[in-house]
Amino acid sequence: MGRDGNKSCFACCFSTPTTSSSSAIKLLFFIVPLILVSFIVFVLVPRNSTWALIYSLPPSTSAVAAAAANSSEKLGAAVHAESSQQVLDLPSRVVKTVDVGGSSGEATLSDSDEVAVNRSASPPFSAVEAVTKFQELNETKEYSSLNTSITDSDSLDITINRTPNNATTSLNETIALPLKHSRQVRTKLDKVEAGLQRARSAIREAKNGSQLQESDYVPIGPMYWDAKAFHRSYLEMEKQFKVFVYKEGEPPVFHDGPCKSIYSMEGNFIYKLDVDTKFQTKDPQKAHVFYLPFSVAKMVRFVYSRDSRDFSPIRRTVVDYINLVAQKYPYWNRSHGADHFMLACHDWGPEASFSLPHLEKNSIRALCNANTSERFNPVKDVSIPEINLITDKLTGLMGGPSASQRQILAFFAGGVHGPIRPVLLEHWEDKDEDIKVHKYLPRGVNYYDMMRNSKYCICPSGYEVASPRIVEALYNGCVPVLISKSYVAPFSDVLRWKSFSVTVSVDDIPKLKEILMNISTRQYIRMQRRVLQVRRHFEFNSPPKRYDVFHMILHSVWLRRLNVRITDDHGVVAN
């Protein structure tokens, strides 16, 4: 009984129903292969994969839905197919997409959805190029995720993101495309161009935004073509603009220039930029522009032989200098001079720039002699004011009574040279009590006192189109009367000259008094007040002050740099 009882107990403890045994065996056959497959996937599949998030489209876009529904391998294959290219049309701000399945759609982009940098000089680039050209990855096993964004209000959000393996992409999220194994790190030039693109976006947005406020100065009024855009552009310049000054060359021709003459802007600008710490950078890879620090006025004095009348020594000096920096640095050849600039106030400044084709056609030329008949290009070149400085201070050069206390209608005194001044003197010298036109001032009459007592100051061109009288008129609160041919007034990219000056053609010189008398007193008072407001942009200060002539020259160069995009493969494209 005991032995039978033990057998019965043993059977009860270790026996199971037949149906339960069958189920366990089936479950075992299901689980074991699953474990083996999971193990193989875990071992063979890379745990750290590289992904690039290209851009976000609305959830209703067919391309997004199709991309989210397909596997990453299908997407990767589609990237390399012409039928699946995604092209960004910058002018129209529309992304044209063709999904993997072949359906097409369009999604209009807002200002915050356009590409940050177009590195190519060719037409708009594809999504593949956008990915490969903006990678900046540092693949390390210590980090499971990496997010780097290039965002600006006028660009697509080009984001590099390492996504965890178990992450999923919803229809409202960006599309993840696997990249090629060969990584291309974003260059320093790409970063420079990305910053410029953010500046362009900010300037465009400022046109429709509210006026920014500053305690120092806020540009406002009809003296500006677009005060808000100029203000934002100036602030962007202060925030990021960097200039590399080539150190090659020795004084007096290089890194030197006249500081007390009608060519004084040459020497003063060279000196101020050489000692500047805000805009100058020692790292050329961070520079937006490169300054060629030669003085044409000093070349005329030390290189040119007046007896020979041979201009070739000046040309050789310019060519030799640019060849020197082009051989030592890669930047001139990279852009063919498009991000380089020179500055000259001497009459022969344009002629010196003709020494090298790229210098004339590509580089930014800041010239006092801004004469369109001598190949000055307002889109690319910069017109700067001619300032006749006697000392390094403006003491005694500025002032004047209010508009109502000025008794003389118009005034001019100066030498007779060039084609315009003889016409002016022929019609008005000693001909009218209201129009004071003199070849030489009478003894005891002060030139600046005459300006301060005049409503209008006549500024005719001489041998060259520029005249220091324009700035002298502004300094003394006198409304300038510009008489010239083919002259581009200084900073006319920002300043609306017709709001604070009068332009008279050479043919209308005989009608000069009639033209000025037809300007109402109310309108004259408005113009005179604007002169007082705008003259801060022509003031020379040592050290420089915000919005003065030094900063306005830099701002004009900054604007020209915004108009081009430079690439590492010797490409330049105009914006």
From TrEMBL:
Q: Give any Gene Ontology cellular component.
A: Golgi membrane
Recorded GO MF terms:
glycosyltransferase activity
Q: Where can this protein be found?
A: Golgi apparatus membrane
Q: Name one Pfam family in it.
A: Exostosin_GT47
Instruction: Give the membrane topology.
Output: Single-pass type II membrane protein
- Please give the superkingdom of this protein's source: Eukaryota
> Is Glycosyltransferase set as a keyword in this record?
yes
Q: Name the keywords, alphabetized.
A: Glycosyltransferase, Golgi apparatus, Signal-anchor, Transferase, Transmembrane
Q: Which family does it belong to?
A: Belongs to the glycosyltransferase 47 family.
The name on file for this protein is Uncharacterized protein
